[in-house]
């Protein structure tokens, strides 16, 4: 990691080397945590970080301290919001645009496709983070109960989707009543998981620090979704130690944490 208070860079481990003609030069710029160097809690940055890790392509990750080093992008992406990708020196902005670009450029047979098999997988849980943000930033206490119900309903919808067997599961076991898959689209992480997991991790961690707060019922398949990502071969950013949410989230909300998180400084492993 490069020393200094403004930027931190890591050269991440790569799969077997490609030829120079085949290997693109990739650099991903993401928001730093409070320490100015570690990976921050931005779910959009973590989303692209996961995509690149799953693709297995070598790349450089650079964290940007947005409080002190906003000018780091001025030479190649002035005015852009993080995350930003440099692909062979060409800047790419907008999370969805970058994701589509990477899927187009880093596809089979050299790299795995991350496109979900089922369209429903990309839609599952897509309203949770918006409803979470609306609830936790709500300045009007009288509205809390209704906003909690909306959030709980979104969590329960995700619960139902994860519980329902997918088509390929029913093809093997026609009488299967509950899905046995590990992730949204099956047993492999896809773009759908890269989008949802970082957001769901923030919601899950926050559930233990703000009150009152709705959470899935015990036994819900939503609960093991993030830990399942930890146990797979990918070491992904959404499941590493997060920055203290009391400093990252709660200053911008109307709800105070009940107790501090047992969190450590986020890190790459």
Provide a short characterization of the protein structure:
The chain is of the alpha+beta class and about 270 residues long. The protein contains nine helices and five strands. The chain is flat.
Q: What is the tally of helical segments? A: 9
**Low-pLDDT residue intervals, each spanning 5 or more residues:** 1-7, 210-215, 230-269
- How many β strands by DSSP? 5
Whole-number radius of gyration?
A: 19 Å
N-to-C SSE string, H for helix and E for strand: EEHEEEHHHHHHHH
**Arithmetic mean pLDDT:** 76
Task: Report the major sheet.
Answer: 5 strands, mixed
Question: Share of helix among residues?
Answer: 25-40%
What is the first-to-last residue Cα distance? 12 Å
Helix and strand composition category: alpha+beta
Anisotropy-based shape: flat
Strand order of the largest sheet: 1-3-2-4-5
Beta-strand percent range: 5-15%
Structure description:
- With 269 residues, the protein is α+β, with helices and mostly antiparallel strands.
- 34% of the residues lie in helices and 9% in strands.
- It contains 9 helices and 5 strands.
- It has helices at residues 43-55, 95-105, 119-123, 128-136, 144-163, 167-172, 191-206, 225-231, 245-248; strands spanning 7-11, 26-31, 60-64, 84-87, 90-93.
- α4 runs antiparallel to α5.
- The protein starts with 6 loop residues before the first strand and ends in a 21-residue tail after the last helix.
- The relative contact order is 0.15.
- Residues 1-7, 210-215 and 230-269 have low confidence and may be disordered.
Chain-wise SSE layout:
Layout: E1 7-11, E2 26-31, H1 43-55, E3 60-64, E4 84-87, E5 90-93, H2 95-105, H3 119-123, H4 128-136, H5 144-163, H6 167-172, H7 191-206, H8 225-231, H9 245-248
Parallel strand pairs: 2-3
Antiparallel strand pairs: 1-3, 2-4, 4-5
């Amino acid at each position: 990691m490069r020393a200094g208070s403004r930027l931190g860079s890591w050269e991440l481990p790569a799969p077997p080397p490609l030829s120079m003609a085949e290997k693109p030069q990739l650099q991903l710029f993401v928001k730093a945590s409070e320490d100015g160097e570690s990976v921050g809690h931005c779910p959009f940055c973590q989303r692209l970080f996961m995509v690149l890790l799953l693709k297995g392509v070598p790349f450089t990750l650079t964290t940007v301290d947005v409080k002190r080093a906003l000018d780091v992008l001025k030479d190649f992406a002035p005015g852009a919001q993080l995350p930003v990708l440099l692909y062979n020196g060409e800047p790419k902005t907008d999370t969805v645009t970058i994701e589509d670009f990477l899927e187009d450029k880093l596809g089979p047979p050299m790299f795995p496709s991350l496109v979900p098999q089922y369209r429903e997988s990309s839609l599952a849980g897509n309203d949770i983070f918006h409803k979470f943000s609306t609830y936790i930033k709500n300045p009007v206490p009288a509205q809390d109960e209704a906003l909690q119900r909306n959030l709980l309903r979104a969590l329960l919808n995700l619960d139902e989707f994860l519980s329902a067997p997918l088509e390929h599961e029913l093809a093997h076991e026609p009488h299967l009543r509950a899905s046995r898959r590990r992730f949204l689209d099956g047993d492999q992480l896809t773009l759908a998981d890269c989008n949802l997991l970082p957001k769901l991790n923030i919601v899950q961690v926050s559930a233990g620090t703000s009150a009152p707060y709705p959470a899935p019922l015990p036994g819900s398949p939503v609960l093991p979704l993030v830990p399942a990502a930890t146990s797979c071969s990918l070491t992904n950013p959404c499941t590493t130690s997060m920055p203290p949410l009391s400093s990252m989230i709660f200053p911008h909300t109307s709800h105070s944490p009940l107790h501090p998180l047992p969190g450590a400084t986020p890190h790459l492993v």
